[in-house]
Amino acid sequence: MKKIYILFVSLLVLSSCMGTDDMEMVNAEFPLGIWKQSSWKGETFDLEKTVKLSENSFGYIFKADGSLIQRSNAGWCGTPPVVTADYSGKWTLAGDILSIESEFWGGTQLLTWKILRVSNGKASIKFIDSEFIYNE
């Protein structure tokens, strides 16, 4: 009986160590690389990993050194056809919260995202907060 108890406790301890840690998954796949916006619904949106960003499309290039390129509207008008431009910035990841600071056509923007899911080259993101600091 004592051997069965020890075996059970050992299996329980080992199985608790084998669970998938979401942060490890996030660090392995996201945000490094090139990601295009694939859908937007309310406060959530999806990004899809790609090899390059198409002209006049929206997306992000996250670099390992914490810098980024954000492709977004080139000006204040969002009426199609939309013209995009590349803006430089930086990013940090703390747990499942991604913070972005980047330029935009009118100044600097601060974005906060919650990473909901990363799987098979796709990421689901919840938009948490944004702040726009306009140039004077």
Task: Please provide a written account of the structure.
- The protein is an alpha+beta fold and 136 residues long.
- The protein has one domain: Beta Barrel (Lipocalin), CATH 2.40.128.
- Helices cover 18% and strands 53% of the residues.
- It contains 2 helices and 8 strands, in the order ααββββββββ.
- The protein has an 8-stranded antiparallel beta barrel.
- The N terminus is likely disordered.
- Keywords: Signal.
- This is Lipocalin-like domain-containing protein.
Q: What brief labels describe this structure?
A:
about 140 residues, disordered N terminus, about 55% strand, 2 helices, Lipocalin
* Unreliable residue stretches: 1-27
Largest sheet: 8 strands, antiparallel, barrel
Count of individual helical segments: 2
Class in CATH? Answer: Mainly Beta
Describe, in short, the structure shown.
With 136 residues, the protein is α+β, with helices and mostly antiparallel strands. It is 18% helix and 53% strand.
SSE blueprint:
Layout: H1 2-17, H2 22-29, E1 33-41, E2 44-50, E3 59-62, E4 67-73, E5 84-94, E6 97-104, E7 107-119, E8 122-134
